[in-house]
Amino acid sequence: MIDKNSPIPLYYQLEQAIRERIETGTLSAGEMLPPERHFTDSLGISRMTVRHAMQALIEDGLLERKRNKGLFVKVRPFHQSLAKLTSFSEDMRARGLTPSNRILEWKEIKLSSLAAGKLQKEIGTKAIRIKRLRLADNDPIAVETITSPLEMAENLTENKLKESFYAYLEGEMKFTLHRGEQEIEALLADEEMASLLNISPGDAVLRIHRLSYLKDERPFEYVTSTYRADKYTFTSSFYR
């Protein structure tokens, strides 16, 4: 890994060696690196040399330092375009990943004034509320809460939801999904959210509020989703 007779600086040799291991998958995303002392003792180099190499990899977005834990190979986030109405399942499959759910809550409710206003219904209208943990290859990505008028989901079952809510609406209910409106805010995870997403309390999360419409402009869902900020980014294109 290190050739002390080479004119190439030692920190750069170490940096390139670790970079190669990350890029080839020898060091996988989320994997913890050995402590500094491992490199100083095994390679016979100074702590300053190790820190110089690690800092370069942090600045290049390949490593991240977690407080009181150490250095980890940075997980590269998923990128979702804001230009198209897609489901979580569709997004994950497009990336070659297997989506899955863990149902946290499933209940029939009466719409509050806020939800009724969003869904263009009378206050107290019957609806279904589903809270679920969304996973990709069994890795937690987001916590999602769907509120939908009962008429849209009267035949929905947990088994049918294993595919996706959109697949159920389009396939069984024969609805044509059309468009959505989203608001995005940055928050810090509380203890409950951190536990569900397998992150630390105080870590950054992205909260998405989405109101989605059928082709006839009827709202069919109001969704609040909380994503791990280290695993998800949203992109948008603008023109002038």
UniProtKB/TrEMBL annotation:
Q: Which PROSITE patterns match?
A: HTH_GNTR (PS50949)
GO MF, one annotated term: DNA binding
Q: Which UniProt keywords apply?
A: DNA-binding, Transcription, Transcription regulation
What residues does the HTH gntR-type domain cover?
A: 8-76
**Mind telling me which InterPro entries this protein's record contains?**
Bact_HTH_transcr_reg, Chorismate_lyase_/UTRA_dom_sf, Tscrpt_reg_HTH_GntR, UTRA, WH-like_DNA-bd_sf, WH_DNA-bd_sf
The biological processes this protein is annotated with in GO are: negative regulation of DNA-templated transcription
How is this protein named in the record?
GntR family transcriptional regulator
